[in-house]
Amino acid sequence: MAYLSSFDISSYGLSAQRFRMDVISANIANANTTRTSEGGPYQRKDVVFKAVDFKKTLNAKIASDNNMLEYENPLDDPFLQEDANPAIMSVKVDKVVRDESEFRYKYEPSHPDANEEGYVAYPNINPVIEMSNLVEATRAYQANVSAFQSAKSIAQSAIDILKG
């Protein structure tokens, strides 16, 4: 594994988890939104992540933007398999999907968005699930910060060793 790619992979993980926390925050903020610009109540959103082969993505970007040589790990062992499993993978946000589950209906005949029977459609957001997803995203973010700090500590130790 290339040394600097650990920084890149951690930064992609940080970015993906931060985006997930933004979507969860929007869900919590709109838990009682009964009217949107698209019409109807707010629909819960969820983030779908996608694993990305970091080396392949980096080389494709180098080939398209520059006239430089392909990235190769200088520490690769030539006796190892060419495509060892698992490959170095990173993560990116693939898409944001809407939760198509049923809306919550509450009897409030005086509400301006009530239907003719007096029921108001509220978003399909469960605050307990949103908070558990937020805690999970926070933990993943913290794990990426820890991995980044460990890689930084290793780099600092290597520099100290080279100083003599």
Q: Mind explaining what this structure looks like?
A:
This is Flagellar basal-body rod protein FlgC. Belongs to the flagella basal body rod proteins family. By secondary structure, the protein is an alpha+beta fold. The protein has one domain. 46% of the residues lie in helices and 16% in strands. The strands form 2 sheets. The protein has a two-stranded antiparallel sheet. The radius of gyration is 23 Å and the shape is elongated. The protein starts with a helix and ends with a helix.
What is the topological layout?
Blueprint: H1 3-29, E1 45-53, H2 54-65, E2 89-98, E3 104-107, E4 119-122, H3 127-163
Antiparallel strand pairs: 1-2, 3-4
Helix pairs in contact: 1-3
Question: Which labels suit this protein?
Answer:
alpha+beta; Flagellar_basal_body_rod_CS; 3 helices; cell projection; Flagellar basal-body rod protein FlgC; 164 residues
Report helical residue fraction. Answer: 40-55%
Please state the average pLDDT score. Answer: 87
The coarse silhouette is: elongated
The tally of strands reads: 4
Series of secondary-structure elements, N-terminal to C-terminal: HEHEEEH
Q: State the oligomer.
A: single chain
The tally of helices reads 3
Radius of gyration equals 23 Å
Query: Biggest β-sheet, characterized?
Result: 2 strands, antiparallel
Q: How many separate domains?
A: 1
Percent in strands? 15-25%
Low-pLDDT runs: none
Distance between the termini: 26 Å
- Side-by-side strand order of the widest sheet: 1-2
Structural class: alpha+beta
